Amino acid sequence: MELTDRRAKPAVYFGGKCRIIDFALSNALNSGIRRICVATQYKAHSLIRHLNRGWNFLRVERNEGFDILPASQRIAEDKWYLGTADAVTQNIDIIEGYGPEYIVILAGDHVYKMDYELMLQQHVQSGADVTVGCLDVPRHEASAFGVMGVDESGRIISFLEKPADPPPLPGNPGLALASMGIYVFQTRFLVDLLRKDENDPNSSHDFGKDLIPAIVRDGKAVAHRFSDSCVRSGAEVEPYWRDVGTVDAFWEANVDLTDFVPALDLYDRDWPIWTYSELTPPAKFIHDEENRRGSATSSLVSGGCIVSGSRIDKSLLFTGVHARSYSLLTHAVVLPYVTIGRHARLSKVVIDRGVAIPEGLVVGEDPEEDARRFRRTDKGVCLITQSMIDRL
């Protein structure tokens, strides 16, 4: 929705300090991958700026590399990236310039922690043409994904895009294997496959729609279970993976971080999530009077925040948020540099970067009024942007 009006989805803020793309990039870095390219397309400025600021520490002198590959019509003047596979095809010369034996293809818009080294090892040992990262999902939810049918050995025998009746996992009929959009190839094999796909007029030039089904049909495709390489600290009980592509999912995943023991551990120093970190002073809480006490409970409050006589409960405040006296935030996800006016009461909200909330604004108590003024989801979460405030 409006969160991606001016920024690509991987550049959307997450978790108080990060952007969504930081999870895939941190997984790569922590897995020992030191040559990384990011292909960008629409509304890419915010993403490219973040990558330049936060990911420019990989050095050629150390046999490392970090390339940003915008859709720059390098192949033809009328040809942007036509699909996920085409985004790689148009940069084959750059990739081959590094001479990698293997290549890992990642989506940049999911939240999870994973050791790609284990997936790469499986790929080499199995002799597969492609290894596909797969997620165990309940069968009744699998229709929203590309679903893998596998045999007892883990070889993929069918690939179905959003099937009405997903094939069950062998030995566990209640689960299905959904594609995570993560693939491992031997580089030479992939280049030959991409060249063939490039010249196919019937192809949509997409990994999930074209290349992977072709390998399943004509070659050897093997599934890699996310549970086998998911990185968990002692605090994480279940493998954690989230697609935060809706306002509800984005709000829920952020608010979940405020739990006493969150499902995703951002405090795991053995698997840090790297990002661009602004230089900010510590968070500050001021005033200690009845009904005017700067406080936060079960909340994450980032650097540069000033909680001035405001009450924050079960909420997540990104960098530089100022909450003024007598205001109340409950189950709120507040992006950087938002100002909350006095006496405002906000519940179940996502507030975009830089919004100035006027004094006395109440959101989350009158569903009809909320829907008239803001973007209100079916689950009752309100997305608030500055343009919505300006129309009040």
TrEMBL record:
Q: What keywords does the record list, in alphabetical order? A: ATP-binding, Carbohydrate metabolism, Glycogen biosynthesis, Glycogen metabolism, Nucleotide-binding, Nucleotidyltransferase, Transferase
Q: What top-level branch of life does the organism fall under?
A: Bacteria
Known Pfam families for this protein?
Hexapep_GlmU, NTP_transferase
Q: Which InterPro entries match?
A: ADP-Glc_PPase, ADP_Glu_pyroP_CS, GlgC_bac, GlmU/GlgC-like_hexapep, NTP_transferase_dom, Nucleotide-diphossugar_trans, Trimer_LpxA-like_sf
The chemistry this enzyme catalyses reads: alpha-D-glucose 1-phosphate + ATP + H(+) = ADP-alpha-D-glucose + diphosphate
Enzyme class, top EC level, equals transferase
A GO term, aspect molecular function: ATP binding
Stated EC number for the protein is 2.7.7.27
Q: Where is the Glucose-1-phosphate adenylyltransferase/Bifunctional protein GlmU-like C-terminal hexapeptide domain?
A: 281-384
Task: Tell me if RNA-binding is a UniProt keyword of this record.
Answer: no
The entry marks the following residues as binding alpha-D-glucose 1-phosphate, namely Y81, G146, E161, K162, S179
Pathway this chain belongs to: Glycan biosynthesis; glycogen biosynthesis
Q: Which family does it belong to?
A: Belongs to the bacterial/plant glucose-1-phosphate adenylyltransferase family.
Annotated function:
Involved in the biosynthesis of ADP-glucose, a building block required for the elongation reactions to produce glycogen. Catalyzes the reaction between ATP and alpha-D-glucose 1-phosphate (G1P) to produce pyrophosphate and ADP-Glc.
User: How the protein assembles, per its UniProt entry?
Assistant: Homotetramer.
Instruction: Report the protein name in the record.
Output: Glucose-1-phosphate adenylyltransferase
